[in-house]
Structures are given as structure tokens and as C-alpha cells.
Design brief:
Radius of gyration: 18 Å
Helix content: 25-40%
Largest sheet: 8 strands, antiparallel, barrel
CATH topology of the largest domain: Alpha-Beta Plaits
Shape: globular
Order of helices and strands: EHHEEHHEEEHEEHHE
Number of strands: 9
Strand content: 25-35%
Number of helices: 7
Length: 225
């Protein structure tokens, strides 16, 4: 079961404005990653800030960019991003962006498994879609995830977490589901997602095909915490 009910996930997915990822790195570290901005974010409840780019190289430009932040205070999120300077700097990093606050999906099976020594690479997959109903999705998800867990671990998974969009109860937005898986190797990853036992749950949870992504840490030193 999920144990992070008091935490909030801020996911920002968008397109980088810089011509290259290296240029984006320098801009990120001088704006969002500037020590003063980092201190301000931390003081308002930002516990973790991680950045990712797609595994597949973009055909042009720097491509997409994903920020995943864990906060312990939703008011802190609102206060931090109400700052005009923060909004201006975000506009410098992205040409377009979609920031969404997510809360842990209550009762959805999730886990974190230690990595063997020396397995230090990390790859992240994301899936976002609208569920038909939370109760139905919970049962389909849990039946499938529990059944395929040994296969997932054999394929190299480290963690699986489920979230729902923070929105008014009963609204369509409140039915938006977001999953994050972390892997130590991409080798068995795609085979796992094609497994019939996995698809038996996921294929029936959503009203339409999920928007997915496969991400990795970008090259170079990025300001993270």
C-alpha cells in the first residue's frame, strides 16, 4: 500500500526552450537551481527536485524535459509558484509546460525495492490517463501489480507509485491517474510492459490509451536535491 499520503508530487513536463540540453542545464542551474531559489523552495516544503530527459534523442532542438518534485506542503507549492520571478524563470526554461500537482492514490499497491550494489543507473517511466472509476481502477491495478511483481523485479524494477490529480472531488480532473516506475536497467523494461498479465489490468483501467514516457537523467551536473 502507498505510505506517502502526506506528500505531494509536482510534475512539470514540457519542451525545453534552449537549443541544446547542455544550454538548458546551464540555464536550469542558474535559475531553478540557483542556491537562493533552492533555499526558498526547501523552506516552503520542497523535499526533492529531480530532472529527466527522454531516453530517445529528440529529432530537433533540446526536446522534452520532466521535473519531478516531492513537496510536503501544498500551500508551499502555491506560494512558491505565485512568485512572478519563479514564473518568469520557468518561462525561460520551457517553451510550453504542463505543471500538475498529484496526491498518492489511496489503496493502490506500490513498492520500493533496494537496488543491488553497483546498479546505479536510473530510468523512469511515466503513464498518465483518465480512469473510468477509482474503485474499479484500484481493483484492476492491484490484481495486476501484485501478480506481476516477481516479473517486474526480474526485469529490473525498483519502485512503482500511483497518484491522482489534486482536483475537486467528482470532477473529471480528479480521475486523472499518474504512475511512476523507476528501473535500474532498461533491458527488460519494455518486455515487462508488453506482458499479458500486466496488460490485463492496465488495458481496462483507462478511458483511452495512456500518455507514456521513458526518461533518464540528462548528462552533466544538474542542481538536484
Amino acid at each position: 500500500m502507498n505510505d506517502n499520503q502526506g506528500l505531494f508530487l509536482l510534475a512539470i513536463r514540457g519542451t525545453l526552450a534552449s537549443p541544446t540540453v547542455e544550454a538548458a542545464r546551464k540555464l536550469h542551474n542558474s535559475t531553478a537551481g540557483h542556491p537562493e531559489n533552492v533555499a526558498a523552495a526547501k523552506s516552503l516544503g520542497d523535499l526533492s527536485h529531480m530532472v529527466y530527459v527522454p531516453m530517445e534523442k529528440p529529432k530537433k532542438g533540446a526536446g522534452e524535459f520532466l521535473i519531478l518534485d516531492i513537496w510536503n506542503n501544498v500551500d508551499g507549492i502555491n506560494s512558491f509558484f505565485a512568485n512572478p520571478t519563479v514564473q518568469e524563470q520557468a518561462g525561460q526554461i520551457f517553451t510550453q509546460r504542463d505543471p500538475v500537482v498529484w496526491t498518492a492514490a489511496d489503496g493502490f499497491f506500490g513498492y520500493e525495492i533496494p537496488a543491488p550494489f553497483g546498479m546505479n543507473d536510473r530510468f523512469v517511466t511515466t503513464a498518465r490517463a483518465t480512469v473510468k472509476s477509482v474503485d474499479e481502477a484500484r481493483k484492476l491495478h492491484n490484481d495486476s501489480m501484485i501478480k506481476v511483481l516477481p516479473k517486474a523485479r526480474k526485469a529490473g524494477i525498483l519502485s512503482h507509485r500511483s497518484y491522482f490529480r489534486m482536483a475537486a472531488p467528482g470532477s473529471p480532473e480528479a480521475l486523472q491517474y499518474f504512475a511512476i516506475d523507476v528501473w535500474m536497467s532498461p533491458d527488460g523494461m519494455m518486455g515487462y510492459y508488453d506482458d499479458p498479465d500486466f496488460l490485463a489490468g492496465y488495458n481496462h483501467m483507462f478511458t483511452a490509451e495512456a500518455d507514456t514516457g521513458v526518461w533518464m537523467h540528462p548528462a552533466g551536473t544538474w542542481s538536484e536535491w
